[in-house]
Every structure is written in structure tokens, then in C-alpha cells.
Amino acid sequence: MTVKHILKELPVDLDYHRLPRHIAVIMDGNGRWAKRQGKPRVLGHQRGVDTLKDLLRCCKDWGIPALTVYAFSTENWGRPLEEVEFLMTLFERVLRRELKEMCKENIKIRFVGNLEVLPLSLQQEIARSMDDTKDNRDIDFTVATNYGGRQEILQACRAIAQKVASGLLKPEDITEELWESHLYTAGLNHPDLLIRTSGEMRISNFLLWQMAYAEIYVTETLWPDFDRIEFHKALLAYQGRERRFGKV
Ligand code: IPE
Ligand code: IPE
Ligand code: MG
């Protein structure tokens, strides 16, 4: 029996009632994973897709209702052109291939980020997948693509400023709720847990506002190696934390 099957159900040392309701993941270390095998970086990205597929299924199996992953940052355009092009093609190919399965598994997919500058054919796949899964309810799966936390904040500022300038809103109408309704993540709870693979202790422009009280878990494991056993460790660490939210 494979590990995947052993961990099909929530491990008994985890408390179902204290699971994070929303997990954000910085899927990092694909390049280093490939380098260690003496392979081109892009192979790491390809393997990373399998990791993501199983994590998504695991969240469903264990009862975690929302997963948000960082697939491509606004800064990632600075990588070599071949790598960027490979990633864009990979996203499109995976979306096309997995859409049926996501529909069947009752997964609602949504993309956040500045999607307008992505290749047109990718934009079309994105629109189709979001539309086809919009009524699905088992898990909210959000993919941050051409996402930047600062850019998200700026576009919300501009949209609100425009409404104030045209008299639709008064400055005193700007509450946390109104603000959040202008973010890409409108309607999603804040992440309870942020997982970052490959050991980097930074958030790299991910969900800056939303992460205010997320518990942060960093593992040395590289993303393509992040399996259910590693995920279990992250959840155990999370359940060992005391979330005080500023109180005593
Ligand atoms: C994360 O892995 C995937 C993306 C940023 C698209 P990396 O490609 O950053 O892998 P490392 O950090 O170079 O090992
Ligand atoms: C963050 O990883 C972005 C994604 C995982 C998509 P990076 O590899 O781009 O982050 P830095 O450069 O190490 O901060
Ligand atoms: Mg990286």
C-alpha cells in the first residue's frame, strides 16, 4: 500500500475541529529540486503539479475547505523567457487536462492576480474553468497567478479612490469590509496557515493584507517532495500553536 492510501483519512492525532479553514501555500523549491537531480529547472515545475494535485485532494479528503496557492508572482516575469513561457504553457495545459476532474470532484477554482496580461489562450482557459466550477462547493481552490500583494493593494486603492472622487463613496465609508470587497480575494476568509516549502523565511509579496494573523510554517522540504506526510507535519505544528490575536 502506498503512503497516499495510508493517509487517505485524517490522521488520528489531528483534531478535525481545529483544522485550519483556509491554507495558503508558497510552493517554492521546484528549481532546486530539479537541480539536485541534474535536470532542467522546468522539470521541477512539472513535478510540482503532481504535488499540488495530491495536496488539493488531501485537503478534500481531510476536510479543509479552502486552499490558496502561489503559482506565479508579479516578480517572476524577471526569470528567463524560456522558463516563463514554459510555466504559462504548463498552466494552460494542466487546466485543460484537469477541468473535468475538478468538476467531478466538486472543486471551485478561482484565479487571483492581474490576469489581463496573461497569454490570451491561458486567459480563456482560466475563464472557462472558473465558469464551469463556479457552483462547486467542496473546496475553494484559489490560484495566485501574476499575483503581487502590493499590486493588489494598489488596485483596490485606485478603485476606491475613483468611487470617492465621483461621489459614490465618502472617505468615512472606507471600512475593513469595504476594503476587503475590493481585493482579489473578496469573499474568502483570511488564511489561518501559511506553508512555505524549501526553507525561505519570507512571504515574497503574497497576500500581504490577508496574512496579518496567519500562522507561518516553513519546511526545508522542496515543493515536489511535499507529500501527505509533510502536510501532516505542518498541520500538527499548526495545532500546537496558540493563536492569541493580540490578547493574553
Ligand atoms: C517555485 O519554485 C515555483 C515558481 C516560482 C513558479 P522556484 O522556481 O522558485 O524554485 P527555486 O526557488 O528556484 O528552487
Ligand atoms: C515565490 O517564490 C513565488 C511563487 C512560489 C510563485 P519565488 O521563488 O519567486 O520567491 P523568492 O524570489 O525566493 O522570494
Ligand atoms: Mg523560488
Gist?
The chain has eight helices and six strands; from the N terminus they run αβααβαβαβααββα. The chain is α/β, with parallel strands linked by helices.
**CATH architectural category of the domain at 21-147 and 190-235:** 3-Layer(aba) Sandwich
Radius of gyration of CA atoms, rounded to a whole number? 19 Å
Beta percentage is: 5-15%
Q: Provide the CATH top-level class of the domain at 21-147 and 190-235.
A: Alpha Beta
Largest sheet: 6 strands, parallel
Order of adjacent strands in the largest pleated sheet: 3-4-2-1-5-6
Break the fold down into its secondary structure elements and pairings:
Blueprint: H1 3-6, E1 22-26, H2 30-36, H3 41-62, E2 66-73, H4 81-104, E3 107-112, H5 120-132, E4 139-147, H6 149-165, H7 176-181, E5 193-196, E6 215-218, H8 228-239
Parallel strand pairs: 1-2, 1-5, 2-4, 3-4, 5-6
Helix pairs in contact: 2-3, 3-4, 4-5
Bound molecules: 3-methylbut-3-enyl trihydrogen diphosphate (2 copies) and magnesium ion.
One 3-methylbut-3-enyl trihydrogen diphosphate is lined by residues 26-28, 70-73, 76, 200, 202, 204.
Protein described:
The structure is a single chain. This protein is of the alpha/beta class. It has a domain at 21-147 and 190-235: 3-Layer(aba) Sandwich (Undecaprenyl pyrophosphate synthetase). The protein contains eight helices and six strands, in the order αβααβαβαβααββα. Helix 5 (120-132) links the parallel strand 3 (107-112) and strand 4. Helix 2 (30-36) packs across helix 3 (41-62), helix 3 runs parallel beside helix 4 (81-104) and helix 4 packs parallel to helix 5 (120-132).
